[in-house]
Amino acid sequence: MNGQDAFRALPVGRCVTVRKTVGESDVYLFAGITGDLSPNHVDEEYMKTTTYGRRIAHGALLVGLMSHASTKVITDLPGTIVSYGYDRVRFPAACFIGDTVTVTYEITGRDEAAMKTFARVTCTTQRGDVVAAATHILKVVE
Amino acid sequence: MNGQDAFRALPVGRCVTVRKTVGESDVYLFAGITGDLSPNHVDEEYMKTTTYGRRIAHGALLVGLMSHASTKVITDLPGTIVSYGYDRVRFPAACFIGDTVTVTYEITGRDEAAMKTFARVTCTTQRGDVVAAATHILKVVE
After folding, report:
1. For residues B129 and B125, what is the distance between their CA atoms, to the nearest angstrom?
2. What is the CA radius of gyration of chain B?
3. Per residue of chain A (142 residues), what is the pLDDT tens digit?
4. What is the mean pLDDT of chain B?
5. Is B80 in contact with A50 (CB distance < 8 Å)?
6. In this complex, is the C-beta atom of A85 within 8 Å of any C-beta atom belonging to chain B?
7. List of domains in chain A
8. Can you give the pLDDT at residue B1?
9. Cβ B40–A89 below 8 Å, yes or no?
């Protein structure tokens, strides 16, 4: 009954945070891994001509930081738990290279029959800007 | 009217693909960037004891490949176009290290007033398994 034990350890209200300064190396390695070399992320001179003024991190990189937070919430739980998906991922403001992002991950709902949890996840900068937000779904698979 | 020109160049039905073999180095660098060192991704011996049998790629890495496809669809268009977000991101099957993933990105809808496009995005392996699917939203910002 490992899975049941794990699911019980994920009540509504459980909350974790992770925090990281998004460095140029993060954005550049992310561009290389994914192949997303949009000028938005890797062309400082181009970005100076836009309303942003400088390079911004990939939204999908912020989803990766959310993934870190979801792993933290299940650390040391028994059984196998996987990321089922994300609903309504939004990037309301730009995350610039050098911004320090705090990810807050809070369980807000549970589907007992399917052994799924739903969490509100937000990424907030040192300026207080929410640069990414989503609902994340974890599923206990055994 | 750069933005209007860009928006006109993104009709319903426009489709691009990108393809990559997801290497161990991709998964390991992604783990380092995001801090998500879940055993699901970096512990082969643990994964042998699960129903998966071996290490799987981060779902958020597949979202990064979707981001590459979204950048490809807007390459060389004028104006500034950003990723507004994703709806209903799902990971229906496991993507293993060594799998070759084809990302198909097809524009399926447009919001003329908001200058947004909606695209169906799928990541499919050489086995034909859909390992990630989502709706992606692009927004022309100028």
Report:
1. 5
2. 17
3. 588 999 999 999 999 999 999 999 999 999 999 999 999 999 999 999 999 999 999 999 999 999 999 999 999 998 889 999 999 999 999 999 999 999 999 999 999 999 999 999 999 999 999 999 999 999 998 7
4. 96
5. yes
6. yes
7. 2-140 (3.10.129.10)
8. 60
9. no
Short-list A95, A98, A115, A101, CA closest to A68: A101
- On the CB side of B51, CA atoms within 13 Å amount to 10
Among B33, B105, B123, most A C-beta atoms within 10 A, so best to mutate, is: B33
Which pair of structure tokens corresponds to residue B51?
């129903």
pLDDT digits (tens, 9 = 90+) for A115-126: 999 999 999 999
Residue of A nearest to B23 (CA): A33
SS3 label, residue A130:
strand
Looking at B23-129, which runs of residues are DSSP E strands? 81-90, 100-111, 116-124
H helices of A38-140, in order, are 39-42, 44-48, 59-73
* CA distance readout (Å), A102 to A23, A96, A126: 14, 14, 8
pTM here is 0.96
Instruction: Write the CB contacts of A8 (distance below 8 Å, at least 6 apart in sequence).
Output: none
Question: What ipTM goes with this model?
Answer: 0.95
CB distance B86 to B134 below 8 Å: yes
